Amino acid sequence: MLTGTMTGGGRLLSISQPAITRLIRDLELELKLTLFRRDKTRITPTREARELYREVERHFVSTERIREAALAIRQYNAGQIRVAAILALSVSCTPKAVARFASSYPNMVISVHSGASIDIIDLVLNGSVDVGFVAIPPGHDQLDHEDVPSSEVVCLLPRCHPLAGKKVIHPEDLHRQDFVALGPSSLMRLELNALLQLAGSEPRVRVESLFSSTVTAYVNRGLGIAVVDPLAAALADPETTVVRAFRPTIKYTLSVVYPPRAARSPPLEDFVNVFLQALREEIDFTQALIEQS
């Protein structure tokens, strides 16, 4: 399924192509399913093979996690911390926090996952990770979580933009301006849209992106203005982009989420503290960019 050929599959498993062919044929006979269509040297997975592969892969990943944990215990006599963070944090805070934590826990294995808040919440709820750092949406009361002190979203503008001379950007300033927007389902986008509607302001959306860090990259390229969280703003290129305050304020609140009723080890508590310190530093950095303007 991964290589597209029997020969490639054999190479991954360090066995011969005839052995792979025989094993696949035996598996098809045992399952009473046709898994591959043969055309000379090419093989094509059937629909049944793809469905089976998804199920096998799910169990295989679980088994690999057990093996990795066992290997870590054997080699390092230490545990593992499984962390999930939204992409904006993974670009900025996570590497800094992991580096600091690793200096105090050199034998600890740190597994890091990045994704959207809703996906991370699912990972936390089913116990696939030990802690998640997310923008938590309403309606997740079953989560064990701690809110981080809120900050404020900011406005990014190309340095050459006429509005770059203003210290504060308002919704009406965005009217008919080229704009880089977060996805339509983003809570920040919905709050911004409400303010724009009240002001009768209609920006000209040129690009939409799911992740705020990607939005910053588009502003760095001069594609338009954006309203983003302070973590994404810390990624602004000072050569091409300026950071300005945005009013009325839109609060940006993150939460630390834990699996329900799960015990927290001292190393996990230490990691969270180190992570929150790195987060505060990133937010302070963005605030300094605004004050410098």
TrEMBL record:
The keyword rRNA-binding does not apply. This is Transcriptional regulator. Keywords: DNA-binding, Transcription, Transcription regulation. Coiled coil: none annotated. Residues 1-46 form the HTH lysR-type domain. The keyword Transcription regulation applies. Transmembrane segments: none annotated. Belongs to the LysR transcriptional regulatory family. SUPFAM superfamilies: Periplasmic binding protein-like II (SSF53850), Winged helix' DNA-binding domain (SSF46785). Pfam families: HTH_1, LysR_substrate. GO terms for biological process: positive regulation of gene expression. GO terms for molecular function: DNA-binding transcription factor activity; sequence-specific DNA binding.
